[in-house]
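Hi team,

As requested, here is the filled-out complex form for the pyridoxal-5'-phosphate run. I kept the field names the same as last time so the parser does not choke. Let me know if anything looks off before we queue the next batch.

— J.
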Amino acid sequence: MLDEFIHEPRVAYFSMEIALRNEIPTYAGGLGILAGDTMRTAADLELPMVAVSLICHAGYFRHEIDAQGRQTEHSATWDIKHWTQPLDAKIAVQIDGRTVWIGAWLYILEGHMGGRQPVLLLDTDLDENSSDDRKISHYLYGGDNVYRLKQEIVLGLGGVRLLHAVGFTIKHYHMNEGHSALLGLELMRRYAYSTEDLRPGESRYDLPLVRDLCSFTTHTPVEAGHDRFSYDLVQRVLDNDFDIETIKRLAGEDSLNMTRLALNLSEYVNGVAKKHAEVSNAMFPGYKVHAITNGVHPFTWSAESFRQLYDHYTPGWRHEQQLLMRADCCIPDVAIWEAHTQAKQHLIEKVQALTGVLLKPDVPIFGFARRMTAYKRPDLLFTDLERLRAIARNQPFQIVFAGKAHPNDESGKHLIEQLHAHARALADSIPVVYLPDYDMALAQLLTAGADVWLNTPLPPLEASGTSGMKAAFNGVPNLSVLDGWWIEGCLEGVTGWAIGDTAGMADGKAQVLYDKLEKVVLPLYFNSDRSGWIRVMKGAISKNASYFNSHRMMRRYATEAYAR
Ligand SMILES: *Cc1c(COP(=O)(O)O)cnc(C)c1O
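And here is what came back:
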């Protein structure tokens, strides 16, 4: 089953979540989408890779939202046997003093250009294990800190052992976020000197060798966001074969900080946008954090109407997105508008099917969809409802929201309720709908069918953001706070619009957003000559999509991180 993959050395890509396809709910948000786009591009470019993640029997959750906006969660079990094949190999790790067996399922990612990449989804739900241990691979981001550490042992230690057990030759390891950093400990042990060779006081571990094998991408611009485990917990749960003093030197004296561990065990470290790398360099003095700005997979995130448009006017774009830089001159305005009208119609139909609300095709739609959590500030637009009504009186617009709040994120859940309250309050003047169960398919419809893609995070907390890049592939301009990728992507009035300057908006004043909407964005949309608006749509394609794609991103990882 694995024969076609194990004959050449591969880069192992470790991620706690991965968005392989809409039917496989093993992702929660942008981190998983990035992992999926990474592997989709690896398939297109035929970069030999293998992804390692967890099987997540219960998926990330699905939710129901009642009229008040209250979210209730259901598990998102999926048809594992239909989409994957079980591998025979099993390996064991020590967890909590017990032997826990780990197996894996193979998913073969088939790219749209014929490339194939293996994905191993680790599973502890085996007869050999106790009922508690069988659940370690059930929930994505579920449970407490103890559960998380157990999952990270399975992912990091278990992942490396399983790759070797099934016969892969791994030439490089890429940790997508710190969750998988324990893989570095497994490599330390695997490549340790034998004790007979050591002189007194010498370390068993060949750290330079381990570092050469590893790259680390950090995603979290605040210290509090990094996984940490107390050494009491670590000593209880982790295999005591590991010398705790060595771990403390690598992962922090006070607690095991997964980001520190990854930093200390990786030669190449990067942030996911230029600003994020700067913030990370300030947070971790003494380390060199490079910048490889994220990108999205071109084919996956382009609506059918735009794929056809690009195939016709910029052939070759599926492999070389730089060709899209010609879009602003080569694609006729009417063709762009027609492709957009189709994508918008698909969204309008979906909104009607899900909510019963019929949006108007000739009124602009603002799209806002992402994980619902406080720093994303989905409610910023509703700071002053009177002002918003006044704007809509002369220049109408409609708003579509979507997004899940993590079950333990009370403020995220509260935000969904508030959005529903605002929608009710505005019912007489501005149509506002909230779509449940935001997933890959809905993200594709929304980022293509909206007229403006709105993003109002609290800087500098948006490490990169990727949904706005999906919008760009569909000629949808961004209206966003300058944070993450948008600092690099925004050319004012050319690719979209900034809300405030790089220093502004941290205090949450919505006035600049209202001013920009009222005086710049909506007048351009409603101008009797549509060519000004279409020029910005083309700017998004030619200057954003041509660059913020995962093919450019992976060419950089391949040359700067993997092939050092
Ligand atoms: C792209 C995507 C995200 C990431 O959105 P951001 O705005 O970058 O946070 C999250 N969830 C899904 C389902 C997506 O497709």
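Two things worth flagging: The pocket of pyridoxal-5'-phosphate is lined by residues 29-30, 33, 370-371, 438-440, 443, 465-467, 470 (CB under 6 Å). The chain has a mean pLDDT of 96.

Thanks,
J.
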